[in-house]
Fold each of these.
Amino acid sequence: MVVIMKAKSSEEDIEHVAEKIRKMGLKPHISRGIERTVIGAIGDESLLNIEQLEAIRAVDKVIPVMKPYKLVSREFRPENTIIQIGNVSVGGDKVAVIAGPCSVESREQLMATAREVKKAGATLLRGGAFKPRTSPYSFQGLGEEGLKLLAEARDATGLPIVTEVMEPGQVALVARYADVLQIGARNMQNYPLLKAVGKIHKPVLLKRGLSATLQELLMSAEYIMSEGNHHVILCERGIRTFCEFSRNTLDLNIVPAAKKETHLPIFCDPSHGTGKYDLVCPMAKAAVACGADGLIIEVHNNPEEASSDGDQSLTPKNFAKLMHDLEPVAKAVGRRL
Amino acid sequence: MVVIMKAKSSEEDIEHVAEKIRKMGLKPHISRGIERTVIGAIGDESLLNIEQLEAIRAVDKVIPVMKPYKLVSREFRPENTIIQIGNVSVGGDKVAVIAGPCSVESREQLMATAREVKKAGATLLRGGAFKPRTSPYSFQGLGEEGLKLLAEARDATGLPIVTEVMEPGQVALVARYADVLQIGARNMQNYPLLKAVGKIHKPVLLKRGLSATLQELLMSAEYIMSEGNHHVILCERGIRTFCEFSRNTLDLNIVPAAKKETHLPIFCDPSHGTGKYDLVCPMAKAAVACGADGLIIEVHNNPEEASSDGDQSLTPKNFAKLMHDLEPVAKAVGRRL
Amino acid sequence: MVVIMKAKSSEEDIEHVAEKIRKMGLKPHISRGIERTVIGAIGDESLLNIEQLEAIRAVDKVIPVMKPYKLVSREFRPENTIIQIGNVSVGGDKVAVIAGPCSVESREQLMATAREVKKAGATLLRGGAFKPRTSPYSFQGLGEEGLKLLAEARDATGLPIVTEVMEPGQVALVARYADVLQIGARNMQNYPLLKAVGKIHKPVLLKRGLSATLQELLMSAEYIMSEGNHHVILCERGIRTFCEFSRNTLDLNIVPAAKKETHLPIFCDPSHGTGKYDLVCPMAKAAVACGADGLIIEVHNNPEEASSDGDQSLTPKNFAKLMHDLEPVAKAVGRRL
Amino acid sequence: MVVIMKAKSSEEDIEHVAEKIRKMGLKPHISRGIERTVIGAIGDESLLNIEQLEAIRAVDKVIPVMKPYKLVSREFRPENTIIQIGNVSVGGDKVAVIAGPCSVESREQLMATAREVKKAGATLLRGGAFKPRTSPYSFQGLGEEGLKLLAEARDATGLPIVTEVMEPGQVALVARYADVLQIGARNMQNYPLLKAVGKIHKPVLLKRGLSATLQELLMSAEYIMSEGNHHVILCERGIRTFCEFSRNTLDLNIVPAAKKETHLPIFCDPSHGTGKYDLVCPMAKAAVACGADGLIIEVHNNPEEASSDGDQSLTPKNFAKLMHDLEPVAKAVGRRL
C-alpha cells in the first residue's frame, strides 16, 4: 500500500502516518519527494485498515497495492475453474448456452419452449419462478409452482435448470429444484443472500449489478466462495449508461478483463444487455468472440404473449438460427458449442 | 398510452395492435400520419401489459401516459406527508438532521458521538449495527449488540434512532429497537425486504440506489406503501458517475423533481454523496437550499479510528459548525432546523 | 409527433396546442383519454418546432415520431454505402483494418511501423500529425511535417493514410495529404469543423464522442452530408462510464443498432475503447463478430518509447497475430479481411 | 510519481523501470514489498513521460503525485482570482447573475428581455449569436447581426454581454462585440479554440463538457491561461447521466471541489443543468448555497416562441422572483447579489 501525503505535510504528520502503519503491523517506508512525501507500507496488506488511513486529514490518498480478493483471483488459482452441472461442463472448451423464457408462465409455455431450445442445441434451461419486478403490481412469478414446472421440463428434456433466488429464506426451497441458482443484477450486493448461497453445494450464476465495477463483482463472488461454495459463474448483463438505443450497454470489455483477474467462468446475457431482440444475435456472437464461456438467451414460444421481456425474447426459430450462426464463431476462437 | 408503429407497417399490423388493445379492455384510437401510424389507447391504462405491446415486432415504441405508481404520487395525495417520529416531525417546516457514526463500534464511541450531536442540535441519531460491506473480510457490524447500544444512546439523549436492516429475516429484530428502519442503497430493489418493511408500523428511510432513476425509487417506495406502511422517507445519497473528485455525484436535481411527483419527504446524505468530509458542509447547505426535508450526516468522535467511512465523517466540532451555518440557509428558504 | 398534455389540462390549453400545430402547418388529432389528452400532429414533421411545443407549460412531453436525420438514414438509402479509398473498398464484404501509431514521431518510427502493418495485412495507415492533447504541455504533434511523413509512408507502402484534422482552418492542408480525414471524439460536435469537412471530396472518419448518443452521432454525420460530402465512416471508440478496468467502455451494441438506422459504414477502435493493449485483440474480434465494417488499431514499433498511448499500442508482432486470429472470425460472419 | 510493478516482476524488470526514471532525470526509490515492488520517482515530475512508463508491460500502474496543471492551481495562486468586467467584479463577495435568452432572435425579443433582466437585478446579459445546434436543419443563430443587437442591448441597459464563440476564426469578430466570450460545453476540449481565446484580453467563460472530469476542465482552463489570458471563469452546466427526470445532472459537488483546487471563479448554469424551467429556481439557490460565484439563467420574454430552449427558460416574472428569493440565500452564506 502507498500513502500519498498532502503537499506541505509536516514531519509530525508523516510520523503520525508511519506510526499508524507500524501499529497495524507493517513497516513504513518513507520517500520524501520535492513536493510530496510518499509512504509505502511493507508487509501483509490485509492487516491494514485503509479507511482509517484515508481518514487522516494530512493524507491525500491511499493506493492499495494488493487486490482485496483472494479466492476468486488468478493468483490463488491459476488454471480456469471448470464447473460440472449434470453432464454439462462450464468454463472449458465448450461454450454453454442457457436458454428459456424470462418467466415460467404455464406448463404449456415452458414445455413448448424447453423442447424447442433443446432441439436447437441449448445446454441449460432458464426460467424465472420468483421474479424481481420494478412494480409491485406486475406479475411476480409462479413461485414454487414455477419451480415444479421447471423440474418437469428438466425431466422431459434432460436440460439442467437455472432459476433465480431472491432472498436468503428462499435458498433451501430453490436449491431443492434448481441445478444452478441465479443471483440477479439487483441482488449482486445483497450480502445475506450471497452468504446463504455460499453455504449450499450447487453452482451459482452471479449477475453483475447495473453499475457495478469488476472489483465489486469479484468481491461479491468472494462472499460466496468465502462461505465454502467455489462454484460461481460470473455474468455480464449490461450496465446502465446514457445510451438511448439499447436498454442497457453490454460491457464486453469485462470479459477479457475478468479472464485476467479471475479463474471463474464468465457468461454474457445479450438479452438484458441490449433489450432488443434484433440486437441479441450480433451481440451473442461478439460475446463468444471475445472469450465468454457461455450465454444466457431469453427465448419465448410466443413473445407477444410473454408476461415479461417479450421485446428482447427470441422466438424458437430465431434461437435456432442463432445457434447455427454461433457455431463458426465459436470455432474461430478455438471453442465449440 | 401511445403506440408508435414502425414505418411501413401494414394495415394488418395496425389492426393486430388495435385488436390487442381492445382485448386488454381499452379503446384504440388510430392516427394515420404521412410516414407513421400512431395508436392511442383510451381507457384504464393499468389494464395494459406494455411489455406485450412492445414485443409486437411492428411496434416501434410504446409511450405510457400514466405514471406506474399510485400511492406515492402527488395525484393520490396532494399535500405533503408529515411523519411523526417520537417528538420529531419530518416533512414539515423543520429540516430534520440525522447524525451519528457510520458503524456502532463500542459504547464509548457511540455515547460520546451521540451526546455531541445532540448538543449540536441533531434531531435523530444514526449508527449501523448490520453493515453491508463490499468485502466479506471487513467489519460487518456488531449486530444485535449494536442495536442495544443504540437503544441505550436513545435513552441517554432522547434522540430517536435510525439504523439499517439488510434482510427480511432481520426486520422484526431491528424494528424492536429502531425508530426508523433504513433500507440501504444496495437494497433499494431488494423486493422481499421492501415487502417486509411494508408490513411493519415504523417509518422507513429508503435510500436511492447508485444508478436508480426517480421512477425506480418511487416504485420501490410504492412496494413498501402497497403493503400498508405509508411512512416512507426518500433519501438521495449520490449516484455513480465518471466523476473522479468525489466518491459519488450527489444528484440534487432529484429533490425538486421528487417534490413535483410525490408527497413523501426527501432527505439528502452529503456524506455518502461526496465521500469527502470537506465537501459535506457546502453540499448540506445546497441540499437544504433546494428543498430537502432533512439530512443524514456521518459524525465520528475520532474519524481516524472509525472502522468505516472515516474519510467522510465530520468531527463533532465540524458538525456543530455545520449546524450553526445551516440555520440561516434554512431560514432563507422558509424552513428552520 | 405526439404531444402528451399534463393531467388536468383545460380545454383552452388543448386548443392552444392544437392551434400552435395548425400554425406550423400540420393537422392536430386529439385523443381525450380518461386522465390525459394526447394530441397527434399529422403532416410534415420537419415543419414542427418541437422546442416551442415543449415550452408550453401545459405540455407534459413531446414525442417525435420522425427521425431528425434524413441523408444518413436507411429510409433515404436502403443499401449500404460503399466508400472507395484508393484501391480499398469500405462498407462491403471486406473488413478494413486501419493500423499505425497514435502520433507520427519521426521518419524512422513511422516507416518501421508502416512496413510492419502493411506486411501483416493492414489496409490503411493511421498516424496523428495534429494531436488533441489534454495538457497544453504535452507533445502536440509534428504538424505539417507529420503529414509529409505520412505521405512518404503511403508512397513506400501503398497504404492510403488516415489522419486527424482539428479545426476548420486546417482542413485544406490536411486534405492535401490525407486520403481519409479523421474527426476525433472531442470534435464530434464541433459543427464548424463538420461543415468544413462536408465541403471537401475526401472520406471522413467520424469518431463518436465520449458521451454521445447514436442519434447525436448520426446528426453529426448529417452535418457533413448536408454540405455535400456523403463519404462518412462512423467509428465507435468507447464511451465514458464508471468502469475502472478499462480506459473507456467499448459500446459494441451501437454497431448492430447503427446498421438498422443508417447505410453508412461503422468501424470500431478497440485501442481507445479499452486503453489496454491486452484487451485489444479480444475486443477487435468481438467488433468484427457483431458486424463492424472495419477496425482502427494503434500499433507502435516500440510502445515504451511512444510519445502517446503506448499502453494501448500493439507491437508489430502482436498486430500480426491479431490479423491472423481475426481472419476466421471474419469468415464466420460472412466477411473477409 | 509512484510506479506499481506487476506481481512477480523480475529484478530485470525493476531495473528497467529504474533506469527509465533515471533517464528522465529523476531518482528511483525502490520499495520491495512482500508481493509487489513499488518504485517512487524523486525529482521534478514534469520531466516524466507517464505514458511511456505505463507502456512498460511489467508495470501495473503509475500514480502521479503532482497535479498536471500549474497556472490554474491554488498552489500557484492561493487567493481567489477576481475578474473585472466593466463595473462588475466576478469571484468576490458578490454573486454575479448572467441572464438572457438562449438565442438572439430579434431586436424586439432581445431588448424586451434585456430590460426585464436588468430591472430584476441581473449583472450581465447573455444571448447566442452563433449557436451550436445538434441538427444542421435547426436555427443556427443570427451571426454578426446578433452580435450587433447584443451591443445595442448593452448600450441600452449598461449590462456587459456574454456570448458564445465556436471556432478560432470567429474569435476576433466576437471579441469585437462581447465583454465575455463563452466556450460551450461541446467545445471544452476544442484545443485550437482554447488557444485562440487564450491570446485575447477578454474574460472567457469556460463551460464544463458533458462528461468532463474536474481535472479535464482545469486542463482546458490551463490551455487558455498558458497562452496568456488569465481571466477564466469555470462553469458547471450539468453532466450526462442515466437520469430521466432532468435533461442533465447538475453536479454541484464540483463547486466546493473546484474551490479547493483552483483560484478561478466557478459559475453554475441551472437552466442547462436541469432542462426544466421549474427546477431552475431551487437549483440556483443550491448553487449559491454551496459556493458558486455566479449563475447563468436563460430568460425569454415569451418562452413558447423561443427558437431554442423554451422549456428551460424563465419568464421575466419568474426571473424577478428568483432574484428576490436568491438574496437571502446569498446572505446566508456570506455573499450578496
Amino acid sequence: MIVVVKKKSTDNEVRNLIKWIEAQSVRVDIFDGVHKTVLGLNGDTSHMDIDAVISFDIVDSVKRIQEPYKLANRNFHPGDTVVDINGVLLGGGNFQIIAGPCSVESKEQMSLVASTVKKLGAGLLRGGAFKPRTSPYSFQGLEGEGIKYLLEARAQSDMPIVTELMSMEDIKHFEHVDVIQVGARNMQNFSMLKELGKLNKPVLLKRGLANTLDELLMSAEYIMAGGNKNVILCERGIRTFETATRNTLDISAVPILKRRSHLPVIVDPSHASGMSELVESLSLAAVAAGADGIMVEVHNDPRKALCDGAQSLGFEQFERFMKNVAKLRQIIPGIYES
Amino acid sequence: MIVVVKKKSTDNEVRNLIKWIEAQSVRVDIFDGVHKTVLGLNGDTSHMDIDAVISFDIVDSVKRIQEPYKLANRNFHPGDTVVDINGVLLGGGNFQIIAGPCSVESKEQMSLVASTVKKLGAGLLRGGAFKPRTSPYSFQGLEGEGIKYLLEARAQSDMPIVTELMSMEDIKHFEHVDVIQVGARNMQNFSMLKELGKLNKPVLLKRGLANTLDELLMSAEYIMAGGNKNVILCERGIRTFETATRNTLDISAVPILKRRSHLPVIVDPSHASGMSELVESLSLAAVAAGADGIMVEVHNDPRKALCDGAQSLGFEQFERFMKNVAKLRQIIPGIYES
Amino acid sequence: MIVVVKKKSTDNEVRNLIKWIEAQSVRVDIFDGVHKTVLGLNGDTSHMDIDAVISFDIVDSVKRIQEPYKLANRNFHPGDTVVDINGVLLGGGNFQIIAGPCSVESKEQMSLVASTVKKLGAGLLRGGAFKPRTSPYSFQGLEGEGIKYLLEARAQSDMPIVTELMSMEDIKHFEHVDVIQVGARNMQNFSMLKELGKLNKPVLLKRGLANTLDELLMSAEYIMAGGNKNVILCERGIRTFETATRNTLDISAVPILKRRSHLPVIVDPSHASGMSELVESLSLAAVAAGADGIMVEVHNDPRKALCDGAQSLGFEQFERFMKNVAKLRQIIPGIYES
Amino acid sequence: MIVVVKKKSTDNEVRNLIKWIEAQSVRVDIFDGVHKTVLGLNGDTSHMDIDAVISFDIVDSVKRIQEPYKLANRNFHPGDTVVDINGVLLGGGNFQIIAGPCSVESKEQMSLVASTVKKLGAGLLRGGAFKPRTSPYSFQGLEGEGIKYLLEARAQSDMPIVTELMSMEDIKHFEHVDVIQVGARNMQNFSMLKELGKLNKPVLLKRGLANTLDELLMSAEYIMAGGNKNVILCERGIRTFETATRNTLDISAVPILKRRSHLPVIVDPSHASGMSELVESLSLAAVAAGADGIMVEVHNDPRKALCDGAQSLGFEQFERFMKNVAKLRQIIPGIYES
C-alpha cells in the first residue's frame, strides 16, 4: 500500500500516522519528495482498512498494490482449485454443464428435465425452489416442497443439485443439497456469506448486478475466511445501459477471474441475456474465453415456464447446444494449455 | 398493461393467451391492427407477473401502464404518510435531521455525540452496530454491545434511534430500537423484507447502489404487503462512472419519489458523497428539492473514526450545517405549498 | 407505434392528436379501454419523432414496435451485406483480421508492421494518424504525415488501410484511404456522419462508450441515409463500473447486431480490454459468438509504443493469436450454418 | 505522479525508465521498498502521457497526484473567473438565468419568447438552430435561418444569445452569436475544441452523458490551451440506470467543479430530467448547491414544441420558477460566503 501524505502535515502528525500503521504489523518506508511525503507499506496489508487510513486528516490518498483478498488470490495459491461435488469435479480442466429449469414447478417436471439433461450430457442439475422476485406479488417458488422435488430428481438421476438459498432461516432444507447458490442480489449479504463459510458444502457465488470483479473476490474471501474453500465464481451479466439484453455478459470476467484467482469460473448465459436465442452463442464465447462451466436454463415447455420462460432452452435447443459446446471443447483446452 | 401479440399468431393461440389472462381477474380488450394485435388489460394488474406474460411465444412485448406497486403508490393513497417514531414525526411537512457516527465505538462516544447533536437540533440519533464491510478483515462493528450503547444514549438523550439490521438472526437485539435501517446492499434481500413486514416498527429503507426508484418502491411494497406501513425511503447515492465522489447523489429521486409515493423521503449526503466538505451543499440541495429529512454522519473526532471518517462532520461543522439547513427550511415549505 | 392517451383527455383533444398523426401518412386505429384510450399506428413510423408525440399534453406514454432504423434493418434487407474493400471482402461469411499499431510512428515502423501482419494472415492494415486524446498535452498523432506513411505501407504490402478521421476538415488527406474509421467519441457526431454518407467509401463505425446498440444502428442509418451503404459496425467495449479492464467488451453485441442488422460486425478486443494479455481470449470469444472480423493492435515494440502500448500485441504474440483464431474459425462457421 | 515498478525489474531497466522520465523535465525520487520500487515524480507532470508510462513493461501501475489540467485548475488560479458576455456577467457571484426554446421555430416565436423571458428576469436567450438528433429522420433544426431569427430576437430584446455549434463547417453563421454551446455529444470532439480555443468568444461546454468531471475539465483545458479562457461548464445530467428521468442530474458536480476549477458552473435541469414538472425543484437544488446559473427551456406553447416539449416550461410556469429562484437566491450567497 502506498500512502500519500499532504504536504502541509507536521512531522508529529506523520509520526503518529506511522505509529498507527506499524501497530498493525506492517513496516513503513518513508519517501520524502519536494512536494509531498509518500509512505510505502511493506508486509501483509490485506487486513488493513483503507477507509481508516483515508480518515486521517493528513492523508491525501491511498493506493493499494496488493489485492485485499488473500485466500482467493492466485498469487498465493497458484494451482487451480478443483471443487469435488460429490464426485463431479469442477475446475482445473474439469468442465461441467449445469442445467435445469429456472423454477422447480412439480415432481414430474423435475424428473423429466433431470433425466433428459443427464442423457444429453449435463453434469449437474439446477432448479430454483426459493425465488428472488422483484415483486411481492410474483410467484415466490415452491420453497421446501421444491427442494423435496429436487432431491427426488437427484436420487433418480444421480446428478448433484445446485439451488439458491435466500436466507439462513431456510438452511434446514439444504442438508442434502450439493451446491448452495448465492444469488446476485445476495453477493454482498455479508451475514449470510459468513454463515456459509462455516459449512462444508460448495457455494456457487453469483456476481452482483453492479459489482466489480474485485468485490466478487472479496465476497468469496468472506466465505473462505470462515473455512469453506469450495467456492465457484459465476459471471451472470451486469447492469449496463444496453436494453437489447436483460443484462450484459462481461466475457472478460472469465480471463480476469482466472488470472486473479484459483477458483473455478462459470458463466450463466440465460440470466446474462434473458433471451433463449442468445444462449448458444454466448455459451460458445464463454467456452472460447476459457470458462470452467456453463449454467443454463432448460425447461420441458419454455412457453409455460412459471418464470423466465423467455430465456429457457427447450430440449431440442439444449441438444443442439450440447453438441456445439462439445465441438468447441475439443479444441479449446489445447489452445489454453499451449 | 398493454400486450403486443406477434402478427403470425393463430386465432387459437391468441384465445389461449386471453383465457390465461382473464383467469387472473383481469378484463381483456382486443384491438386488431393491420400488422399486429394489441391486448389492453383492464383491472388490477399489479399482481401480474410480467415475465410470465412475456414467456408466451406469441407475445412480442409488454408495456406496463399501471405501476406494479400499490400500497406504496400515491395514486391510491394521495395523502402523505407521517411516520410516528415514538413521538418524533417524519413526513407530511415534518422535517427531521438524523445524526450520529457511522459506527458506534464506545459508550462515552455515543453519550457525547447524542447530547451534542440533540442540543444542536437533531431529532433522531443514528449509529452503526452491525456494519456491512466489503472486506472480512475490516472492523465489523460492536454488534450487540453497540446496540447497548445506543440504547443507553437513547435513554440519556431521549432521542429515538436508527440502526442497521444485517440479518434476521440479529433481530433479538433490536427490540428497543426505534427505526430499523435496511442498508443499500440489502434493498433486495427479499427474505428480510418479508420478515420486516411482520413487525410493528418503522423501517428506513436505503436505495441500492444500482437500483431504480421503481425497484426501491417495489422493495417498500414487500414490507408493506406484510402489514408494516411505516416505511421511510432513503436516497443515499447511486453508482456511476464519476470518481470524484464515492457515489452520485440522485437529487431527482426526491421529487420523483414524492410524486410516485406517499412515503417520507430522506437523503443521506454522507454516503452519497463520501466527503465531509460536500455534506452541507448537498443537504441544502436536498432541502431545496423537498426532502423530508437528512441523515448525516457526525463524529466527535472524525480523524479517529473507525470507519468512514472522511465523510463525517465534526461538531463545529455540524453546528454550521444545522444553522444553514434551518435558514433554508424557513422558505422552502412556503415554496412547495404555494 | 402504440400511443397511450391519458384518461382525462377530451374527445376533441384526442381527435386533434389523431389528425396530427395522420398528417404524417400513418393510419391510426383507436382502442377504447375502460381506463384509457390506446392508439395503434399503422404504416411506416420510422420517420416519426417520438419526442414530438410525447410532447402532446394528453399523451401518457409511447411504445415503439417498429425499430426506428430502416436501411440498417435486417427485417427489410434479409441478406448479409458484404463490404468490398478494394478487393478484400468483409461480411457474409468473409472473415478478416485488421491489424496494426495504435499510432503511426514512422515510415519504417509502418513498413515493418505491414509486411509482418500481412505475412501472418491479416487482411487489412490499421494505424492512427489523427489521434483522439483526452489531454491536449498528449501526443496527437502524426496527422497528414502519418497518412502518408500508411499509404506507403499500403503500396508496399498491397493491403487496404483503415484509419480514423476526427474532423471533416481533414478529409483531404483521406482520398486514398480505403476505410474511414469513426471513433467511439464521434459515434454521435451527426454532422460528420451526414458528410460521410455522401462519400463512396466504406466507413468503420465504432460504438460509443455509453451508447446502446440501437443508437449505434441509428448512427449507421445516418450514414446510409446519405447514400453510403458500406458501413462496418464495431464493438469496442463500453464503460461499466468494472476497473479490471479499461472497458467492458459487450460480447452479446455480436449476435444482437447480426440479428437486427445485415451489416458486418467486428470486434476490437484491444480497446475493449486495454490489456494485451486479454486480447487472444476475447478474440476467440468474439469468433465463437459469430463476429465477421477482429481489429487488433500490433506493434513492433509494444514497450516503446507512443500510445496504448499496454494493449498491443508484439509480433510473436500476434503469430500465436493468428494460429488460434484460425483453429477456431475451422469449426465456427459450420456451427452457425447448421 | 507515483510510478510503481514491478519487483522483478533489473537495475538497468529502472535506470532507462528514469532517464526517459527526466527527459521530460521532471525530477525523479527513488524509494526502494522490500517488495517493490516506487518512483516519485516532482515537477509539472500535467503534460505527461500516463499511457506512455504504463506501456513500459516494468511499470506495475501509476497514480496521478497532480490533476492533469492546469489552466482550468483552481489550485493555479484561485480567483473565480467572471465571463463577460457582451456586458452580462456570469460567475464570481454573478448569477444568470439562460432561457428559451429547445429549437428555434420561427421569427415570431423567438420574438415572443425573448421579450417574455427578458421581462421575467432572464439574462441570456437560448435557442437551438442546429439540433443533434439521434435519428436522421427527425427535425434537424432551422440551421442558418434559425440563427438569423435568434439574432433578430437578440437585437430586439438586447439579450446576448447562446446557441449550439455542431460542426466547424457551420462557424460562418456564428459571427454575431454571443456564446457558442458545445453539446454533450461533442464534449470530446477534440478537433472542434481545438478550433474553439482559437476564437475570442465564450464557450458553454456541456458534460458528456457518460463522462467524469475530470474529463469535462480536460475538455475545457483543450479550449483554454488554445488561448480562449472564457469557458462556462454545464452539468446537464448523466446516463444512469434510472428510467424515471431522462438523465440523472449529478448535483454534486456543482460543488466539485467549483472546488476544482475557477470557471463558472451552470446547470441545465430541462435536459437532466426531461420533465417540465421537475425543472423547478431541480433548479432550486442547483441554486442551493451553489450554481452560477441555470439554463432552462421555455416555450410559448410547450404542447406544440417541435422537439422536447415535454421538458419545456410555459410562460406561467416560468414566471413562478423565476419568483422562487429569486427567493432562494436572497439567502444562498450569504450561506456560501459565511
